[in-house]
Amino acid sequence: MDPLPNPAPLASKLRNTLVRYHSIGDGEWRVAKKTKDAIVWRKPSEEFSGYLYKAEGVVEDVTNRIVDHIRPGPYRLDWDSLMTSMDIMETFEENCCVMRYITAGQLWNIIAPREFVDFSYTTSYEDGLLTCGISLDYGEVRPNFVRGFNHPCGWFCVPLKDSPGHSLLTGYIQTELRGLLPQSAVDTAMSSTLASFYSDLKKALKT
């Protein structure tokens, strides 16, 4: 188990990585899934042998409220069907923490529940916010879970210029689920999970 990293340089590096992902040209992405709520693209990850996914959709609400539902905190467990438990292990500042969470089984439990320990950081970006994270090798691995690993991930949320009550939400996700899994099952699950994330979030914001 590694010691906790110094949060300031890790947060800065994480933000810079996400901003770089956000500037990748359209031609490098391939559409993986389209729904009425979101479009999901993917490209080979630079971090591991899987894919970096990009998801984008317009959400009807203000930026701060949307990000409060996504970042670690009381809202996330209420609406995100993929997350079954979440504990804040360490808090560095109001916008920076380490959390441990469990994800539900997927694809008729071909993909069993996973445990993650993530460093999470929320900061301003243009007129909106960026909430981002990366997994850490921290805390004991509980014996009944496979420990997954999130390479740099994040959500950009910015108000639409011509419709300030709506926000453009763009996510970048690259999750290494680990364990013995067929890659095709992982790819199917990732695309579907990201599309469902938008529809579930929209329902939660309306309640």
UniProtKB/TrEMBL annotation:
PROSITE patterns: START (PS50848). One of its GO terms (molecular function) is cholesterol transfer activity. One of its GO terms (cellular component) is endoplasmic reticulum. Pfam families: START. GO terms for biological process: cholesterol import; cholesterol transport involved in cholesterol storage; intracellular cholesterol transport. Residues 10-207 form the START domain. PANTHER family: STAR-RELATED LIPID TRANSFER PROTEIN 4. This is STAR4 protein. It comes from Nicator chloris. The gene is Stard4.
